[in-house]
Amino acid sequence: MPEPSDQHHDKGKTIRTVTLVGAILNVFLAVLKIGIGKFAGSQALVADGVHSFSDLLTDAVILLGSRYWMAPADSGHPYGHGKFETLANVFIGLMLALVGIGIGWDSIETLSDTPPPAPGMLAFYAAVAAIVMKELLYRWTMREAKHIHSAVLRANAWHHRSDALSSVPVAVAVITNAIFPSLKYLDQIAALLVTGMILKAAFEIIWPAFNELTDARGSEEVEKRLVHMAEEDKDIREIHAIRSRQTGGSLLLDCHILVDPEMSIENAHAISERFKQSVITKMDNVIDVVIHIEPYTCEERLVNPCSLDEQLHQQKKKPDR
């Protein structure tokens, strides 16, 4: 099994490589969209190009910030540096929202102006090329994000998808205007649709990050799996008080496990350590489990309360004080 430091190094390297490739493509697409948008007279394509340039800022945040949140736990941050990744997600989401609002505002202002000439077909070809390239980049980035359990890489993947989607109404508006020249303001309406898509993507990035910063429940699915693993362990009589919270792309868990009350402390500790290592090994995104050991007695049992006969039996077994 690789050492934690090696895993952090590999994960950080993947994040930086994927982000750097995305940044290079964003520069190319931004220049392409803005240049052709100006030449072909498409406000929507220019707005889409500005959106691509905004991706560069988030790419820079990831490239610089990943070295901080990928650092292992230390005395100053005993739970690790995962919250730096969460803050980066908030920044990416806010940047997306601001870009979307700016594009929408410009589009609304121009709706009151004299309708501009219909954009040239060159804008359509540029938009289609952007859709294909950014969709491919989204799929690759999302695949890598799932592979290394990176929330910030997943957020950036959605940033790429929002850029691809924002080019769709641009392409539709240009081709529709070419077929029906009498239709006015299609380009501005397409820019407003771009705004809606960008704001939706921003919300989908910010909301999970907000929940993480407020220590909302990490993962109900992981908690259920933890119960299942405890039930399969013959030395664990019961598990309860399970809690989970997210930190960056990882999960922290804590729980109470009940064992034979006549077992030695040493054996009970060995069971908890074995169970902890099993959970961390089998659940890739879990980085730590804090386990509180309790005796399997009527006073401690919550999931399977004692019957009246069991309570009387345990009372008889208690030594007189």
TrEMBL record:
Places the protein is found: Membrane
Describe the family membership recorded for this protein in Swiss-Prot or TrEMBL: Belongs to the cation diffusion facilitator (CDF) transporter (TC 2.A.4) family. FieF subfamily.
Q: Return the protein name.
A: Cation transporter
Q: What SUPFAM superfamilies does its record include?
A: Cation efflux protein cytoplasmic domain-like, Cation efflux protein transmembrane domain-like
Gene3D superfamilies hit by this protein: Cation efflux protein transmembrane domain, Cation efflux protein, cytoplasmic domain
Q: How does it sit in the membrane?
A: Multi-pass membrane protein
Transmembrane regions = 15-36, 87-105, 117-137
User: Which residues does the UniProt record annotate as the domain Cation efflux protein transmembrane?
Assistant: 20-213
Q: Does the keyword Plastid apply?
A: no
| Cation efflux protein cytoplasmic domain location | 220-296
Q: Which UniProt keywords are given for this protein, alphabetically ordered?
A: Ion transport, Iron, Iron transport, Membrane, Transmembrane, Transmembrane helix, Transport, Zinc, Zinc transport
Tell me what organism the protein belongs to: Photobacterium arenosum
